[in-house]
Known about the structure:
Largest sheet: 5 strands, parallel
Oligomer: single chain
Strand content: 5-15%
Strand order of the largest sheet: 7-6-5-11-12
CATH class of the domain at 2-92: Alpha Beta
Number of strands: 15
Radius of gyration: 29 Å
Amino acid sequence: MLKQTISELISKAITKAQKEGKLPAFDLPEIVIEHPQNPDHGDYSCSVPLKLTKIVKMKPMDIAKDIIGSIPASPEIEKVDVAPPGFINFTLKKVWLAKEVNDVLKNGANYGNINAGQGKRIQIEFVSVNPTGPLHVGHGRGAVIGSTLCNVMTAAGFDVTKEYYFNDSGSQMDSFRQSLWARYQQALGKDAAMPEHGYMGEYMVELAQEIKEKEGDRFLKMPPAEGVEKLGEIGLARVLETTREDLKTLRVEYDVWYSEKTLYEKGQFDIIMKLLREKGYVAEKDGAIWFSSTALGEDKDNVIVRSNGSPTYFAADIAYHYNKFIERKFDKVIDIWGADHMGHVSRMKAVVSALGIDPSRLEIIINQMVTMRRGGEIVRISRRTGDMITLRELLDEAGTDACRFILLSRAASSQMDFDIELAKKQSAENPVYYVQYAHARIASILKVAEEKGATDEGGDVSLLTTEPELTLIRKMLQLPELVETIAQTLEPHHLTYYAQDLATVFHAFYKDCRVVSDDKAMTSARLKLIKAAKLVLGRTLNLMGMDAPERM
């Protein structure tokens, strides 16, 4: 990529300046290449002279001049200059820029792909909600962030496994089974009380009624413990089925659905307990078994087996991450968790270290809460049931593309507002509509060209010399750079800003440059350009898991 090319030019120029005695010897710092905020300053900029000023005891402007004096000519670069207080700015050749249109078209649907990952195996686990009820909007945010990140990491050359971990054992599942048992009995006319900490939502009433209609009263004829267990199995399966359906509607699918119960059935829990004991990270007190987190710098130790002998969720997570790193040998693991798991991050890193795994191989992203609004009014409950607003309700009202775009539009670490009324608007106010309209507009132009017999065959891209044309090309060429950046930062929300910027640049081009005209040569060249723009817009939408419509 061009950023890497420019970085190498600067690195070689510094080495040359050192050999010539213009600069003293020093170890090269990281050379960061960015886009200047002001386009008048060029296409790319480097601030390395500002970093070097304390090392070489020279003014940054003088350092910059010594560096650019050693930068050789290159086929991409028109000029290199220095700007206060010590930036090196690069301006690309217009001819080179125009030729890149052909490169975009040549790459087709693979445009934007890079090989940063070199096939390394990454597991991305996201959503992973306890199967005790329907998904809500916050879960949807994690689903969109996770699935988009999977798309980008795949485009960046990683071998990605998308995984959903479901807790099908433990105290919450016991509560779920008891709650469903009570609602099932009530559906059959029995006087049954809900458990104290049961699941009170209307969805439990509906689930019990659905099971009653299909299964009748057969569970009441079993011994109570067996009836609760069998009913719970059906309830769990139905909740998981609904979860899969909702996520599929959101265009989220997984390679693996991983059961917590199997960690005990297949022995991973026993293995990690043995390992932690051997390494001296287990202590027994108050009748419980604790992970000695304080030995690894944590503020407090953490229970892994309760005094009643039941493992905690933390114990299951330890076994699960042992399976990820040691048994399945993933090079890197990325967990995307909800805001309520913030306190779980440091102890998870600590226990991974205790298992002998480099904790830097584990990345944990916490996605913050979503506030639902209708215009200026906060919406807290469902119109249908009086309970929480489910993901399914939001998808039915706002549509998948709008939900994905808006839920992706802020950094995971930021709390966000979701305006349902804005998501439904068919106007430029709605960001997803604005971006998709640009794609549909290009499709419309291409259709008009086809009807008039105009084609891009033999189109000479060197005719693309005006600023609107070149600005569009510059923006298109940023997609591979963005894929690399997201792969490094794990921040896929940047795609939404890029998509809007690209749409804006295209709309500006469309306003100033007539594509289909009496000038056949210019028509062919501009048809090539908008085909490339359509391809990049479509690729960006696809990375975000959204449709690229041909008409709107």
